[in-house]
Design a protein that fits this description.
By secondary structure, the protein is mainly β. It contains two helices and ten strands, in the order E-E-E-E-E-E-E-E-E-E-H-H.
Amino acid sequence: MNTTVATEPVRVEAYSDTVKKLGDWTAANRFEVRGRSGYALLDLRSPRIVGDVEIRVHASRSTIKLLVPEDAVIDQWDLTFRGRGTVKDWEHTKGTGSRRVRLVGEIENGEVRIVRGGIAILTAMFSREFVDDCVRAHRAGGRPTVHDPADTHA
């Protein structure tokens, strides 16, 4: 497994706001997510993301939703909770996966939601970004990729 890590993390800020990063939006594997009374949605299913992923979280009264590959392993050992913080992963992967997502940092009265498989596809499809991607694909004669970033063939 390739564990190459980029030098600079991608920063995502959700301060009393909703931020959505869907589809094949980055090839980085290090992220810093900060939120205060906000909502951040990060799509980590892109085939361009190589190796393990590290997400440094600093969230207060915020929700961070991660769309991950079906076999991704979530490592929350270095995540600290204050108040009612939690990580919700209803479809825990069985065994070792192709990608490890390591969560580090602190959550205060917030949560991280892990979404995989068909639910991740539906989450992406029920967004304004998917509609915009469909319009773009139609005009360019291509295919939409927000619902499934690995679907890049013509």
